[in-house]
Predict the structure.
Amino acid sequence: AEYRGYNHQLEQESTKYFIPSSLPLEVANKVEEHGQPRYLEDEGFYVGEKPVVLQQNKNILESRLLKHGGSDWFGPDGQVDLLPNPVTEAPTKPWVDSVDELDPCIETTYVKARGTAVEDKYFPGSDENELQIDIGTIIFQHHPLMSREHVLVSDITKMYDEYRIIRHKNYITFYTDKLAALRNAAATLKETLDETTMTEDAFSAQRTHINDFTAEIRRTTQQLASAESAERDMMRRIIEVWGDIKSIREKQGYNNTSVKLVVKREEVNYQQDVHHWELEVENQVSERKEEYDVTIAIAHQEEVRKYQVQLQEWKQNRLKLKRIRKKMQRGSQENLLDPNSEVGFPVEEEELNIAGNIDKPQKPDKPAPFDKDAVRNDVMNQLLANRRNPGEAKISLELTHTVNITPISSVPALESSRRRAMQKSTMSRVLFNGREVFLTDPKTLTSDFKLNFGSIFRVRIAQWPESLKVELLSSGLVTRTLISSIFLTIPPTTVHSGNVRLGPTEFLSTRVESFNHEGVGSNTPFTLRPNDASPTSINTKGVIISSVSWSLDQDGRVLAPKGFVERDDPISGGNPLKINDPVIAIGAEGLQDPESLTKWVKESRLDPNDPENAALVPFMQGIKDGEGFPFAQDYFRLEQLQEEFNFLTDEEFSHLNRLRLLQLRDKEVAEFRNISMIPCNEHEITESAFTTYERRLKEKDSLQSIDTKGLEGGALSAHRVEVLRFRQKVKDAVLHRFYTSRHHHTLQDMVHEEQIPDIGTLGSSMAKIVEPRRPLKPIRKTRKKATSQNLNEGSVKILINVVRGYNIPTRQSAHAHQQNRRGAVQISSSSLMAGQTLEPNSKSFLVSPFVAASFQDTVVTTSVAQGPNPSWNEELQLPFSAPNNDYSSSNLQKVDDVLFIHLFDRVTEDATPTDTEDPTTIVTRLQNYWLGSFKLPFSTVLSFESQEDTELLAKCAVFMADCNKRYPTRNVKTTVIDIKGESVLITRFIRALPPPPELIEGLNPGSKEATEKLARFVSLIPFVSDNVTYAGICDLWSTCDQFMQMLCGDEEEHAILLLNFFLHLGKQAYLVLGAAVPEGNTAYVLTLDQTARDYTIWNASTGQQYFKGDPHTPLQSVGALVNDKNIWFNVQRQAMPIRMHFDVTRPADWKPFFGATATPLPSIQPESIYFPPTDQSYVSNLVDVIERTLKDKCKDRIVSWRPRHITRWNRSGNSILRQIAKGLEESITKNDGRASEHNTQILSQLGDVRFTGYPMDQPFTNVESIVSAVRSTEVHKIQDPDVEFSMAVHIHAYPSSVLAVWVYVAAIVNTR
């Protein structure tokens, strides 16, 4: 081998290799030829920051680029164009699917987090550094105590959210409209396409447009099919999961959640669907034919044309070559060089061979013809798979929460153990730099697995913040168990308590938990469905809603450490302080004077075009003469592009449900003011959240635009419409005034402190120890009140104590009404009231009464007693459900449900056996006959704390303090609140007012008939409690004219009006403030008969009267008497009317408010009230409306109430009852006893029948209340197969549209 030296090797490498130089190159070589370098930064353009590269490496790169002609890589300044820093802020690695193939070199090694290097762990001024931490709500997406039903409900909730997003985006409608528009545009272009009248360029351009439209139609059709398929698949999956939920509920026999899937079906027109279906098929087939013509047929024609051209050229070349070869074979080279030759140029042998080897062009294959039938079948199959078929109903899904959760007392032991385990308390602990700084109060899981902490606390820090961790702890008997750890981010200095917002932070725990009850556990395999092949496992996970910010002092200064995070980010190389504090970031934190700072900014020559220096632009502008220093703004605005930055139109912005919900809650609208938590996402708020609010607005608007026909098919007259409008106006004014004044708080409203024990309280406590024990006279202890946050559905019940009954009507013998004919008639009528007695010569049988209480569609009954004076001593429990599961005081006062107490007589009747039964068998039937009832508004059952104004007159305060000290439980008032929100002395409401002249015309003003007729008139004004009308507000009193304008009120308004009427008649009358059963604190009227010296107590709401010595009067306690001159407080030992003296001139019995010489205060009542006459045409129309409603709707409802029996109607009975109902009101007002004497008329006209009738009267409010009253009689529960029903309606009109509605409903059984 031959040896070659090193120099020879270098020579060889220099000829083959290029070694770029590391020396800098001339700028002229890197710019355009004869060009000059251009420096954009000097011209004022922002050039940004380029990544740091060593100059030597940059020179080598430039040398290589110039060597290979890469002059395009250089900019106008002669420097290499470099992209922004390619280094990411956080290191990443590709995902490795298989763990077995993981290379040890890239295996993740977990190390402890390394904090930012600081010079000193502690910093000065720690008293001024304060963090504010808000721990709001923790929502568990999966919890170990969830049952299988909860897991499925979580899945269906997520899928339903996706379904709602799909429906909200409404892709199907969008693509359908787009497809229709494209087809219309394409059809228009095809109609105007005319080759004869258009130029060639215009014709070609329009043909191109048509082809583009055809392609876009094809894409839109595919997108529409995908959208329809996705929606149907989502609905199918939701229905499958709902089926699994129902299967689990049926298998386990109880409900753990309230979720219910409602599938709404909308029937369609089959013929119309078939027409649209065929039209769509024809459109798609024709569009595919056009696509075939454009993409295949026309392309094939172009290929055939090219083929023909190529074939012709090939034939010509072959002909020329044949001629040349013939001449060459003859050896005639001269002919080849002859200029007159056809070839005309010398041809080499090699060229002749190559030219002779050219292949013949291949003829393009003819494409398959368009198969219209195959395309039609393909289109049909796609439509069948993706779209709704013809005649198939339109289906929509709605996920509601209307299913009742089974109470814990009705579930198996394992489920009961799981629910009891949910009652364990959970708390959160906050650790700052690894040290505990706060521990929240323990909370229990709600039914939807949420923990509502609502804790805000502040931490003064003396160390540099390194970590902030929240630990969830479960409390046990001895120790606490860690559920999960959540790390929160230390906020920048710009985030403070004034602008911070609550945000979600997800967490996950891999802790293994398993139980021996129905809880599925965490990170533990379990079988979700019975047919699952393999078990599944879910980790505990959820979201914490929290915020971390820096506190603000009284001057609004952020209490954050100065120079927080001073060092550059070692990864990104940027300075994060430029985002938080640009002044500190540029090293000018020592400059506090604005003028000095402005001077420094000018000398530092900062780039004004750099976005990072946007906050310092005002400092660069300097201070002009006569102007203040332009402080930096915290926003950047481009007025020129304002429209481009409007991501939503004003209309879309106004339709955001979450924004609308926030605005309504801020305005404290009744339906939204108690909402504590609002979802963070728009799709989580459904349109159903505004249903009640929009319905109320619709009703309110309808009052403004209602015509004389009114609502409910003509159930309102013009006067009633004005009443409703005035009532709504007063209600809106009162609510607005109250919610405005509610924001004015005192120190006592915000700070609640227990009294510091002193010698007095300690002495009384010691005295209780030595008190004698009196077991027979126990002291009532106040039950500890449960907070509304700890109440849920099923935990609140209404307790009813049924003690005994007196003078229950008894059954009459069959021969009492035979009247020389066969058969027997039994009449049960409300005209036989409790307390009435039968005729002495009539034979009576025992009655079997029982009490039934109904509330919110739940009915409970007592046991069946015997005799007219039964004794039960039973307690009935009725479940109570608050609206929206909100048990706050203000929300409960909006409940307008009514508690009905019914009295029934249970009768055992003989029934005829059917053909399938043994004839020797004796069949009996238990039948309940309604004897009477009364109703209690929920506002009467509920007891609320007073919210009255405390700024009363000094004398009233002293008088009330003395009264409450002597007898704290007695009802007494000196001042009340009127509808204007002002405190008014109670005596100002009393003044003699003339009643309607029609009521006392022709009567002696002092007669009993006149007083009873006035009481009847006042009782027919609808009763509505203030707790329902003005929810959340103290009891408001209205004057008599306001009362008649609103045509509704509670006990006080009824009593004041009746009292003023009695005073006009010249009677000595007083307003009684006391307590009654079942009203509670109420107002009655007391009158004194001067001749008999006898006192009568009037219940103005019902029109009933009681004598002072009546032991069955509902008034149980008298606290005060009031007239237009004075207020007298009852200082007697006894408060029951039967044991009292009502002589107010006796100082030992009554304490007066004013002295004997005091001058009465002027009244706020008007001198007289106008009572407009009731339109008789309106009354006649209303009778028709009610009868039509009862016949049309109630008949259908009675049929629906009796699903197992045939319902028949007796027309002759209707006419008889109609005649009887007309005389009932007159007999009631005259009290002549004819109300109970109509039995003879019924018996004489109906013949041999068993008749059960219930005449009812009530004030008119709306038709629905009349339907409820008919149902409450339970006449539809009569199971006799031969029963027939009759019904009649009569309305007696009083002035001012006060109406007495009589409804007579009866069941008739033919006994022949």
User: Anything to note?
Assistant: The first strand starts at residue 130 and ends at 142. Residues 429 and 439 are 5 Å apart (CA to CA). The first helix runs from residue 6 to 16. The chain has 33 helices and 32 strands.
